[in-house]
Amino acid sequence: MPSNDNQLAFSLEILRLLAEQPRSRNELGDLLTEFLESRNQSSGDILQKLTRAIAKLRTCGFEISSAPNRPYQLIESNFPIILSSQQKEALSLGIYLLSRLGFSAQAERIARLVHFSEVELSTELKVDFNPPVDYSSEKISEIIEELQQRIEKQCRFSICYTSSKGDERLWDLDRSELRLHNGVLYLFSVVPNLPSLQDKIRADLDKNYLFQISRIKNVNAASNTRWFYDFSKITIRYRLIGPLANYKPRRKHEQVIERNLEKRFVVIETTEDYLFWFRQRILQYGANAQILEPEWLVKDIVNEIQVAYTNYAHQF
After folding, report:
1. How many CB atoms lie within 10 A of CB 143?
2. Which DSSP helix (H) or strand (E) runs through 187?
3. I need a labelling partner for 15 at 20 to 30 A (CA). Which of 26, 139, 207, 276 fits?
4. Domain end: 196, 219, 242, which one?
5. Residue 204: phi, psi to the nearest 5?
6. Do 301 and 309 meet the contact criterion of CB atoms below 8 Å apart?
7. CA 23, 28, 112: angle at the middle one, nearest 5?
8. Which domain holds residue 118?
């Protein structure tokens, strides 16, 4: 590659290939051979050219890992990025939110990528997220990565989980996904063999189970058994009144069934797969919310409100 332009194009192609995924030395050699030949350039001694180019990229600040019998991996890029003031402002906000959500390492990587100063990272927005751990810590990051791999494979697997009481237990899991709720990261899974004394509808809902990521001790290897279950769901109707009569659904599983602005109410139908979160949302609306159906859920909420009233009644 006699010209500087060709050398630059060759180096950029290496970065492009490594940005897609880690690649072995031989795989890179084959892909780069095709690249050079498509440009009518010599592909002789391709592996030596690759070695020299990788060394130059490292001196330019690109962190590329390699080891015997292991692929090349682009760990951190130092490619210059030119941003407008609006783009900088948007990235600054994203970095701040990531750090407040407990993903400090990811936030730092983005900040280094665009070379933000502390002044440029300042924001007028304040958030109130209180994650139980830093999800960027080495152990938690490893747990999250392993869970992502199991979810991608879509086969049953098990985890060792520590309860809030400190008890460790092995859980066999079917369909699973990661969910971020109120600033806390959870593994949401179907536990197929979970016993329940409830009727079938509630028993199926009870199989939808939450695990705090920070309490997962380890993730075991995936089995060869494909996921069989879907997350059980239930349709709920509820009414909002008074100051909440203008409520417009923001969640994709909610829709307005009826709205009467004169009488100041709106009826919402929602499909839920985890009742605890729904109950939290309804109870925070206080006297401005009323569940209409199913009847058994109405009774559950009534009982809960009565217990709460009893807890306060003795103070007066």
Report:
1. 21
2. strand 184-190
3. 139
4. 219
5. -65, -40
6. no
7. 55
8. 80-129
H/E element, 216 = strand 216-219
| 147 and 201 fall within a common domain | yes
Q: Which of 153, 185, 219 is the last residue of a domain?
A: 219
Q: pTM here?
A: 0.74
Domain membership of residue 226 (yes or no) is no
**Rounded Cα distance, 199 and 113, in Å:** 54
Q: State what percent of residues in the chain have pLDDT above 70.
A: 95
Is 225 inside a domain boundary?
no
Say how many domains are in the chain.
4
The tokens describing 221, both together, are 């290897």
- What b/e string do you get for 92-118 counting C-beta neighbours within 10 Å, with b at 16 or more? beebbebbbbbbbebbebbbebbebee
CATH of the domain at 41: 1.10.10.10
Q: Which residues are CB-neighbours of 285 under 8 A, at least 6 positions away?
A: 240, 244
Could you report the per-residue pLDDT of 201-219, keeping only the tens digit for each? 778 888 999 999 999 999 9
Is 122 found in the same domain as 103?
A: yes
